[in-house]
Amino acid sequence: xSDASDYDLSMLLRALVMESNRFLEIxxxxxxxxxxxxxxxxxxxxxPMTPGTLAKALNLSASxxxxxxxxxxxxxxxxxxxxPEDRRRVELRVLDRATALAATFFQPLARxxxxxxxxxxxxxxxxxxxxxxxxxxxxxxxxxxVS
Length: 147
Fold this sequence. Notes:
The chain is mainly alpha-helical and 147 residues long. The protein is 71% helix and 7% strand. α2 (35-46) crosses α4 (62-74) and α3 packs across α4.
């Protein structure tokens, strides 16, 4: 590819996001997960959190977050655990079963990514890394400004 303009990069990134969303929709539909439930599950998988932290991350009310958590808990994806040090505090955890289920679906994608990146040099991978980090941070900044 020759010189890529900001527009070209934006359109390719948009295409990647759309393709990723379509991929997630397949998983969500196969496991009866609402898109918000899928986002919540991904957030909880990333780092254990409280329902309040999740509500803020999802930009949902406490009652809407409770509904999301009720659905995820009923489906066997998450559990709410009391903090043994502070019984008022509840931590959310993704169950091993849910992690294993996700792995069976997402591992083929991870393998395909690895294959696509196999021919990249260390220097090229560093450029991709910088691009992804900078783009993710830029997106988070704009999301924060508009929310």
